[in-house]
Amino acid sequence: MDPQERLNILLVDDQPAKLLSYETVLEDLGENLIKANSARDALEMLVRHQIAVILIDVCMPELDGFELARLIRDHPRYQTTAIIFVSAVQVTDLDLLKGYEQGAVDYVPVPVTPGLLRAKVRVFADLYRKTRQLEQFNAALEARVQERTAQLAEANATLERHNEELERRVEQRTQEHEAALSRVHQMQKLESLGQLTGGVAHDFNNLLMAIIGQLELLERRVPDDPTIQRLLAGALQGAERGAILTKRMLAFARQQDLKTETFDVVQLIENMMDMLSRSLGPSCTVVTDLPEGACSIATDPNQLELALLNLALNARDAMTSGGTVMIRVTRELLNGTAGAPLPYVGIAVIDTGCGMDEATVKRATEPFFTTKGVGKGTGLGLSMVDGLIAQSGGHMKIDSTPDRGTTVSLLFVEEESQAAKAPGIPLPASLPMLDRVCRVLLVDDDDLVSASAAAMLDDLGYLVVAASSGEEALGLLASGVGIDCVLTDHAMPGMTGLDLANEIRLRWPDLPVILATGYADALEQSVGPIPFLAKPYRLQTLANLLAQTLIIDQAKRA
Fold first, then answer.
1. CA 502, 503, 509 angle in degrees (round to 5)?
2. Before 109, cis peptide (omega within 30)?
3. Distance between CA 429 and CA 150 in Å, rounded?
4. Pick from 494, 493, 495, 492: which is nearest to 516 by CA?
5. Which residue has the higher pLDDT, 55 or 244?
6. Closest Cα to residue 59, out of 3, 106, 24, 18?
7. Is 225 helix (H, G, I), strand (E, B) or coil?
8. What is the mean pLDDT of residues 144-151?
9. 261-413 under CATH 3.20.20.80, yes or no
């Protein structure tokens, strides 16, 4: 076993805050930290990964730490794996004896002493590493014995030929088996990551909703001071980048359906120039080399914008002293899948940065592979770009030379020109005025998000009635409170926002409902005629959708 190879350490606790604290304490060990929120999750991780050390909370729902340790010891692969119990209660001698009987090798009391926990885990990790090295040494010794035995059998040439043929077939089948297992493991990882990021995206979007909403309200109220306005603009830009990161994780974690459109990529790039210049900062210059006339391709324009932004940011990071990022669009004639030449549109993002060697280029599109420092890259960007191009029937090519820069080329089949216009039609600057002040029922179980949304509605001139659950909202409506529109969150315990909207349509069919959600991608196909807001949303977006909804309702009642 390579002494530098990172070991897998499993952290099991039903409290996310404690898991985060263990991760912070142990990250200096340089090992892979795998987290599980329950005994069931822990057993699943033990099946998927080779675990060196297991850290278990004693007190957990469903199965406590002692029961989990017993189940782990029943598995043939983990009969000798180091298990460390973490206990927040006073541990008696009987508890210690029970833990050791179930397979524990050590205890750590809570509150945890970081240095003590780190030292204990390091000792057992080193012991695991040395044990594996000894096993590999024994295996190598056995291999040498087999080699000597094979040399003694060389006198029988016919048997040797049969042996070689048999070994060749075994090796081929083994490689095929390992390749199949690798694909299965990758699919399982993507599935679990998709489930994880779905929940994380909702919570993260709720936080960003509160941050963006209150920053926008501050921006409208603070004095016209250039410094304050610049600071607020920077904070808003940071929050929006957080929303982009959430979308990027979701795009990587699942094979989501692309919203394919045929559009002119030249116009799309021209419309992105201001955003690219602001995103790359003053140290980088963005230039383009675009052909005359339209270059039409078919893909998801929003995902393509995200992909180009990601490539441009990668190019900027590769030029530590600044430089020029060029975006070039070309037409090429390449062989298609049927062998006949097809017209392609090539989009190249070119930098003059540090470049990559051949080995790095080969791994560049692997999920979580990054050459950036800790905290400076997720390793998801190029994986997301590669997935987008593959789903769109195109190709991605990376040409790079150390110290001479990198060119990333995206190749799409050129579509017939349809006078396509760039996506992203802006909302109208103004809408017809309502004939009275309207009352909005705001439903959200998150107090922070509810307070932020209520402040935004109040700033827009609406009267706000708040409810913290779907049941409470139905009670208010049944009591006869005059409501003109309902703005509800979707992911709420008990009754979801979609359930609430369906109930309102049954009991008060003329009352308009707007659904606000951090799961916009997942719900877009299922909400039917219900208008929805994707969290985090901006004040202007909220104002436009509310006005449109209420004006339509007003017209129906007229």
1. 80
2. no
3. 83
4. 492
5. 55
6. 18
7. coil
8. 85
9. no
Asked, colleague to colleague, whether 8-133 and 261-413 share their fold, the answer is no
Q: Rounded to an integer, what distance in angstroms lies between the CA atom of residue 247 and that of residue 201?
A: 8
Highest CATH level, class, for 439-557: alpha beta
Say yes or no to pLDDT of 390 above 80: no
Residue 508 has pLDDT above 70, yes or no: yes
Mean pLDDT, range 427-441, rounded to an integer = 62
Q: What is the DSSP letter of 156?
A: -
Is the CB of residue 471 less than 8 Å from the CB of residue 495?
yes
Q: Which two tokens stand for residue 35?
A: 């987290």
pTM score, two decimals? Answer: 0.42
Encoding tokens for residue 548?
């449109």
pLDDT band at 374 (very low <50, low <70, confident <90, very high): very low
Q: What is the mean pLDDT of the chain?
A: 79
Which has the minimum average pLDDT: 142-146, 482-486, 548-552? 548-552
Q: Read off the pLDDT of residues 312-364 as tens digits, 9 standing for 90 and up.
A: 888 888 888 888 899 999 988 876 655 567 888 999 999 888 888 887 777 76
Q: Give me the architecture of the 8-133 domain, per CATH.
A: 3-Layer(aba) Sandwich (3.40)
Distance of alpha carbon 368 from alpha carbon 377, whole angstroms? 9
CA 85 to CA 58: how far, in whole Å? 6
Phi, psi torsion values for 490, nearest 5 degrees: -90, -55
